[in-house]
Penicillin-binding protein (Domibacillus epiphyticus), 618 residues
Amino acid sequence: MRTVFGYMLIILLIPVSVLTFYYANAEAGKVQNFDDYVEQRVIIKEIDLPQASRVKDANGDTYLELHQPNRVVVEGEKVPAFLKEVFLQSEDKHFYEHAGIDAAAVMRALLVNAQSDEIEQGASTITQQVARNVYLTQDRTLARKISEVLYSYQLEKKLEKEEILNLYLNVIYFNHNVYGVESAAQYYFQKPVDKLSKAQMAFIAAIPNNPSLYDPEKRFDNTKKRQERLIDIMVREELITADEAEQIKNEKIILNTRDRIDKYPDYSTYVMDEFKDLIAESEGFDQQLINAEGDARIQIQEKLNARVSAILTSGVIIHTALDPVIQQKAVNAVNNVLAGSSVQGSAAVVGNQSHDIVALSGGKDFDKTQFNRAFQGYRQPGSTIKPLLDYAPYMETFGAGVNDLVSAGAYCTRSYCPKNYSKTEYGMVTLKEALAKSHNTAAIRLYMKTGIEKSFSYLDKFEFDRINEDDRFPAASLGGIDGFTTLEMAGAYSSFVDGTFTKPHAIKRVTDLQGNTLYEWKEEPVRIWSSATTYKMRDMLTNVVKNGTGKKANFAAPYIGGKTGTTNNVRDLWFVGLTEGYTAAVWTGKDKYENEYQGIRYMESYAPHQLIWRRIMQ
């Protein structure tokens, strides 16, 4: 009975409120009519419904759905006439006759609901429901109800009936964060709405009247009973025959609900981070942040976050370079090689021709909420820095050949006297052998001869996040820099493909649902090494794998080359290398150490970093 009294109160108060509004309007401004007054105060903004965005792999397949909310807007002509008619007959029989408010429907709903003692028919017109869902809230207050009436009045003035009906079909709620008939069809039956049977159409049409009461997943029987009542209405209105109604009722409804697609969390967490960077660069937020401090910086960040959210709720498609096969290999390699140990790892794979990021492993047994080591884990690179900071700059500066000699004997600069890893002095060796055996004293000699500033002038071109002026000292030549990520290292080593560097990205472009490009990176390749230096470095890197410290990474391939890296006390084990098609970096180690000397020396002979790399690249 509370429902009945509620409706009676609304019936009495709405006309009183409207009359009061008219009276106040007449007294407040004799020259201003009611339409003008409402026009000024009830503004119908352009309607742009929030809908889901998707992230696709290199094959064009969706691997992440961003439901904010779960809505796929569908054009009205694609919605079957039967489904439209079910909604019209059950929700707003006189939709094409009224001007937004249907007093007769209010009285009819009052009588029907009083007889059934539940809300069997709604008093709100379709226009009112659009007004409530698009412009207002779901609050059950008199003020909101009056606003709903006024907005409905304006909607009817601004839009055609078919436009209002189409909006309704896209805004109504079907529970489980599902909005609109297209999303409902895909969620409950994994079909587009125009492929549903009439029984399925009537079934989903039963839900919006009371999404909790008619939730198909929790209260299937309730939903089925209401579906049959809707079909009876269609018979009563002579829109279908009794025989057809029985056929529709007897069709077995089998739900085929679809979970939100969310694959490859190692990669997708990076994509969302990069997406924010892309928006910042494309719309100038990055420049605003450069000199901003304190509250000003916080405000810019808040505006950027709001802008990112607005774009994602507009229904965009983020096209990425993800290769599902390589991605799965990277994840499996890290998980399997490190299984049963307390050691963590990460991996990044870049395409040599595209310079796109094709795969990322954020860590063993990575979960989406975790720290992603592939792009957030900054670690000292050990000897993997030598090709980038010592050998290639030296060869580029002096035109040295792979068989030129360098001393691998004792060396000191001021008070810094590094030792070779084996604690042995080797005398004069070729550059090729020095790199293959990773002799520290040979590497620092090349670095110091080239000059610290000159050597860093090459490294600076790779845009490492944490390189700064304080890193320009002798120990940097041996990896004493804190630090690099696996993704950064994979990108830098890709310069040994053709001598150029292009900052690798996961996102290829962002489009709207019609395929129009909205955002894309504007990276241009930067020349780092000459063709001669590149050729010589590739020769030396392949020798590391075949005859040096990287033998466990070797496999039969047209080209393979790379470099190992070990930091003090074996706290980190690295391997970075390339084949004809891809460049990849792998890091293994522990996230935190209990003391200064704790490392993973017990894993060194097992060479997990090399085994992971080989499993990914082979």
